[in-house]
Amino acid sequence: MTAPAQNARLSTPDSRLTTHDPRFIEVVQVATPMDRLAALEIRRRVFAQEQHAADLRVADADDERSIIALASLHDDEIGNHKRPVATGRLTPPLVAREPALVAWVATVPEARGLGAGAAVMRFLLDAADSAGAREVALAAQLPAEAFYRRLGFTPAGPLYDVRGIPHRRMVRRQQ
To answer: Whole-prediction pTM value?
Structure first.
């Protein structure tokens, strides 16, 4: 699966940031050990620490064959100080005509509302579109269902429980 450009710079759509505010969000495909560690740390903070899934492994076998996106918030005009704040993963299907899968979408609490999660999702959906995926599926936590609806996903099944958190399968089909 081919990913979009490795350095997709996206302006932050947050109304709290003025045009003079030098902060912006950069989304890249994880390509270095440091990027991978940063993505795993975000997963750990959000899923294991914040959501109390103590037995959760934050890496799995699908990581190796997937596109992992990492969003960083740049805090100065020349990008010398950037903080990894969000991540997500797109896994291509093993069988033709199966959907590509999005998983591990997470934003650290202090960066929520700044557009980093949406930037990660746009990056992953662009990669899916570029690869010709006709359908992308994910397991949305119930509180995030509206977020995924805004990105073109629709519910595709009943609620189910994962570690005490209600989830729903959602899909996005190519038009």
So the answer is: 0.84
